[in-house]
Amino acid sequence: MNSLTVDERELEKIYERQLESVLFSINQSVQDKVSDITTMMDRDLGVVSDSEWMDELSTYNFFWALYLKDANSPGEQLYTLGSHKDDGLEVVADSIYSKNTAVFSRLLRYKEAGDFMKIEKSDNPFFNNGKELDFFFFVLGSGESAKYGIYFFDAVLMIEQYLVPKFQEIAREDFILTCRRISDGYLVYSTSDQAPNSIQSEPIDLLPKYEIGITRAGGTVEQAVNRRKSQSLLALGLLMLVMIMGIYLVFRNIQQEMKLAQKKADFVSNVSHEIRTPLALINMFAETLLMDRVRTEEKKKEYYGIITKEVSRLTNMINRILSFSKIEASKRTYDKRQLDLNEVVKDVFNTYSYHLENNGFHYHLNCHIEKLLVNADSEAMTEVLVNLIDNAMKYSLEEKHVAIKTGLKGQRAFVAVEDHGMGIPKNQLDKLFEKFYRVPNGDVHDTKGSGLGLTIVKHIMDAHEGTVEVHSTPGKGSTFKLIFPLYKEEDV
Ligand code: ADP
Asked: Which of 68, 174, 176, 308 has CB 3.0 to 4.6 Å from 215, enough for a Cys bridge?
């Protein structure tokens, strides 16, 4: 990820070539300028007067001094011109000349061979009057009139005057071009306010003490690669996170599916047991009656009673399963109307009081004095209440007491079914309403059930925008509270 792609490498190459062409163009400018000056000197030497010649040279603000020597009698110095000629320049220029006589002889040979005025640069440090100067060597004229020359100038001024416009023209908004003195890194010019470290830099041909640097305005290719790297890492991190989440979800789903499968298996065994017991009882008592083996009327009545009770248990069971399968298939519909909760509760209570009494229960009904109008399906309400009363009875083994209460809680109506039975441990409360769930308790297996009753209750309450609250203390009893929104005119 860190390494450069083929494209990026290509970009770098383009970049290098770009620098080469920038350098070429700048070198060309310096060359042209120096050529202008030497051509002018060659053309006018001996033709115009010294002062005119001097004026021509002085049009360039970077000109410092000129040193000329006759090539045929080098002992004789011809000119040292320029305003700085008295600053001890002559002596120094003389010594430069003496050290470079070989260079001058070579330049003279070129000049005479093809009338080609070659210019020789020098990167020796040279200070005059506390100022670092640049200079180049050349030969003027030829034959008898040939002259050796050293042109002293201020390179910084030359760069500022002739190269800066060139820099600006080349750089535009794509590049940052800088020019620095190599010896001390002094920044002569930059096309941008900031002068970033250049990625590529090369000295200028005729100004070897100065170098040009180039940087891409949008940062280096490496920076772009680094940026891409962090973006890719971030994307990779996110991908990993999504994958981990995916794996976690799949794992959780599998776990849930396994739990559900286990619960379904329990459900099937519970239900078969629940169906088989009443069927066996019905079968046994019906056969006894059919064979006329029962002597007394009283006994017959008792057997009929048992058969009726078991049939109703079977019916209840089957109704519950049908109701649940309708809910599961999302086919359950509700016929909601304005109802008085008190009335529904009283109806169910009246039907159940006999059943409660028969099973040895004390019971108690406490209705709110005013009507509790709700928008509900009366059959579904009955189903919910029957389920809760059924559970209260099933799970009260010793203290058999059921109390039903209706009332108002803020802007909501409620029905509470309270028992003094075995209660439910706190850690089981949030699972009660899951389908097929039965509290894993030794006693529960003795108590018949399918784990569907509370699932149906929850579904019906949701469909009525109601909620179910459970308060329970193990060993002391439970209260299931159904809370409904009150009837509103817009419910019609
Ligand atoms: P079940 O057919 O097993 O009664 P429910 O969905 O009606 O199924 O109830 C789920 C479980 O909640 C029950 O198995 C029982 O453990 C627990 N439960 C429900 N009501 C009561 C209650 N009144 N007292 C104690 N436990 C209860």
From this structure: 176
